[in-house]
C-alpha cells in the first residue's frame, strides 16, 4: 500500500507542476492587460511548480521543499492581496494590510527553523521543533482563510464573477493544508495518505485557476436542489456525529483503567441510542428543512416541487381511498408540514360551516356548527389566512372577537385557518394542525397557501357541481318516467273516452259490445305492460325478441284506429320480423297517431311493408302538414319537444328507442305542406329470410 501512495505522490506532483507551468506560460501574454494581478499568479504558479518538483526529487520533508513551500505561501498571500486590491474591488482594505503582513512574518519565521535543522532527518527532529513549524503553518492557514473570507465578503457585486474562481482555488489550498497540519499537530507526524493527496489538491487548485481565466466574467453558480442540500446536510451531520463519537471515545481511552473502559462503553451505547431516537424524528427533519431554506435559498419553497406534489396529490384519487376533500386538506398540510387538518363546508347559504372531512385528525372534537355565520361573512369580505397563535396572543392583524369561535381558541393544536374562495364565494375553510417545529407564518407561506387554496376551491366547486348535476339527473330520470307514463295514459284515456262516447250511441248493438270488450281487454293489457315497463325503466334489460307476424300486427293497428281515422294497409305478403311484439305495437301506434294528428280528417294514412334485403321496410305515409329539415334534425326525436299543443314530445323519441333496441332503425322524409314518410327497417325473421333467398337466387349471387 505504501508503494501506491508513493507512486500517487510522484505522479500527482509531476502533473501538478506541469499544469502550473503550462498555465503560467499561457498567462504571460496577458500580463499588461491585467493591471498587476496576473504577474502575482504567474510567480506563485512558478514557485508552486518548483516546490512540487523538489518534493519528487528529494522528498516533501527535506529542507529545500520546506523552504520552497514557505516561499509559495508568501507568493499566494501576495496574489491574494493583488487580486482584491486592484482598482476599487474592496472597500476598506487598509485595516487588513497589517493582518496580511503578520501572516507573511509568521511564514518567514519558519525559514530559520528549516535552515537550523537542515541536516537532521525529520524522524529525528525534536518534538518542539516539529510542533513549532506545524503550529506556525496552522496559524498561517487559519489567518489566510479568515482574510480570504473577509476580503471576498467585501467585494463589490460586479467583481464576484471575476474573483470567484481564484478565491475558490486559494480556499481549497489553505483548507486542505489546515486539515493536514491539524492531523500532523495531533499525531506529531505527517500522515502518508494526506501528504500524497496533497498533490491532487495542488492539481485541483491549478484547474480552478485555469477555469477562472478561461471563463472570466461568466456566471457559474452552483444551484443544488433542496433535496440534495437536505441529504448533504444530513450526511454531514451524521459524519460529524460519528467523528465526535470517535474523538470522545478515543479521549476516554487515554484515561486508562477499568472505570474508563466502562465509561467509554456507556458513552457509546448512550450515543447510539440517542442517534436511533433522533434520526427518524419528524421534528428533526422539519428543523433541518427550515434551516436550509432560511440560510441557503432565496425562497422558503421550491415552487416547482410544491406544484408537482400538489398535482400528484389532487390528481390521484386512489391514494389510500381518500376523497377529494381529504386530499384537499392534505395538500395544504404538506406545504406547512402539518400532521393533520379538517375541512369545514357550508350546508346552505344562510348557515355557518360544519365539519365536512378530516385528514389524520379523528380525535378533534368539533361542535355541530364549527364556524358561525360571522366567520363566513368575515372570510368572504377579507380573503385572509388566520394564524391562530397570533390571534391567541393578540398580535398581528386585528381579528373581530366573533370571527374565531371559543372552541378553536381553546384548542391549541389548531394552528391556522385557510379559506377556500371560488369567484368571491366561500366554499369552505381548512383548519391545519400544528407542525412539529414551532414556526410562524410569513408572507411566503401566505402567498403559496392562498394560491393553492384558490385552486383547491375550484376543484371542490366542480365536485359540488357534479354532485348537484347527478342529483338533477336523478330527478330528471324520475320526471322522464312520469312523462312516459302520462303519454301512454293519455293515449289510453283518449281511447276510453272515444269508447264511452260511442257507447252512448251504439250500446244496444251486440257487435259494438263485442268490440268494446276487446278494447277494454286491450287497454287493461296495455296498462299492465306500462306498469311492467315502468318497473324495468333504467335497468337496461333487453326485451325478449321473437318471431312476429308483421301483417297481423298492422291489421290490429288498422282496427284500432277504425273509428278515429282512415288507415289504409297496402297488403303484399305476410312478412315476419324479429321484434318484441308489445314494444313494436306501441312504437307503431305512436307513429301512426302522429300521422293521424298531422293529417286532415279526409286524408288517409297509408301503411306499406315490403322486403328490402335482409330487412323489412315498413313505411307510414301521410299527406299532412309536413316538417322542415331543421325540425327533423334538431327536434323530432328529442324528448319533451313537441309541435302539437299539449303534446309531451315523447312518442317519436320512445318509438325510435324501442325500434333501435330491436335491431332496427327509423329514417324520415318530409316536405312542408306535402306530408311525411316514416321508414322503419326491421330485421327479417330467419324463416322468412330463407324463403326470400330461395325466391331470389340471383340477388344472392
TrEMBL record:
Claim: Membrane is one of the keywords in the record: yes
EC number: 2.7.13.3
Lipoprotein is among the record's keywords: no
InterPro entries noted in UniProt: HATPase_C_sf, HATPase_dom, His_kinase_dom, Histidine_kinase_KdpD, Sig_transdc_His_kin-like_C, XrtA/PrsK
Keywords of the record: Kinase, Membrane, Transferase, Transmembrane, Transmembrane helix
Reactions it catalyzes: ATP + protein L-histidine = ADP + protein N-phospho-L-histidine
Designated name of the protein: histidine kinase
Gene: prsK
